[in-house]
Write a structure and sequence with these properties.
Helix content is 30%, strand content 33%. The chain contains seven helices and eleven strands. α6 links the parallel β4 and β5. The protein starts with 11 loop residues before the first helix and ends with a strand.
């Protein structure tokens, strides 16, 4: 596992939670709006399945809004941090904590013996997968959806004119460097704080790629929210909402 970025004066769990959390308020609000569109009473008692939940930046708002969530990730470090956050909530917000179950699962290969009213893949996690893995994950998620349920997915779109390398400050003392290989449809993101770094590799995914994947999986796209990145003018985060109609 890559080393965490931990300044001496800060709690390690708090620091890593902030670095692992890639969602912004607009994305979270879009997810909550899409969940509020589910009115079928047959789905009311079903849970939301979250894939690649990380440290819970989307899980906690969903639970606070009254949804029961099965939150999954395949990274033990992230799940450990998230479980610690939930334990802390048991004293201050026991109702929210009680709505969350945390379980380890790989978003490319999972099987649960229940159907869900919604499945959420937040924070652009889908771009960590190669095209075949991405298509299979969307098909697998669709198979776990109840009829009338929603697949909610976010992805960062990097336009072809984006420069091959950029560096900027994300938070005081933390810089992000992105290197893009347009020809290979790949990019590498490195977060640096002092002499410590955290690197992740991503695939470039265009909106039409995901729209084709949704069609192949049998879900209908009915919502798109574009969230431009003011710090990187060639980047846009897009939240997609789909519904399983058949």
């Amino acid at each position: 596992m890559p080393r965490s970025l931990i300044p001496a004066h800060r709690d390690p769990a708090e620091t890593r939670a902030r670095l692992l959390s890639l969602c912004d308020k607009s994305e979270i609000q879009s997810v909550l709006d899409l969940l509020s569109f589910i009115h079928n009473p047959r789905l009311a008692d079903m849970r939301v399945l979250e894939l690649a939940c990380g440290v819970g930046p989307v899980t906690l708002p969903m639970a606070a809004a009254g949804h029961r969530v099965l939150a999954t990730d395949n990274r033990e470090d992230a799940l450990g941090l998230f479980s610690g956050r939930i334990d802390g909530l048991r004293h201050t917000q026991p109702d929210v904590a009680a709505r969350i179950e945390v379980r380890r699962a790989d978003m490319t290969d999972f099987l649960f013996q229940e159907q869900f009213k919604a499945i959420c893949i937040p924070a652009g996690a889908i771009t960590a997968l190669d095209p075949e893995q991405r298509r299979n994950t969307i098909r697998l998620a669709t198979a776990h959806l109840a009829f009338g349920g929603r697949l909610i997915l976010s992805a960062e779109h990097v336009r072809p004119e984006a420069p091959a390398s950029t560096t900027f400050t994300t938070r005081p003392g933390i810089t992000l460097t992105e290197r893009i290989d347009h020809a290979r449809h790949r990019r590498r993101i490195t977060l640096a704080q002092g002499d410590q770094t955290r690197t992740s590799d991503r695939f470039l995914v265009a909106p039409h790629d995901l729209m084709r994947d949704f069609e192949d999986a049998g879900v209908t796209l009915d919502y798109r929210h574009f969230i431009p990145d003011a710090r990187r003018p060639h980047h846009t985060n897009i939240v997609f909402g789909t519904v399983k109609l058949h």
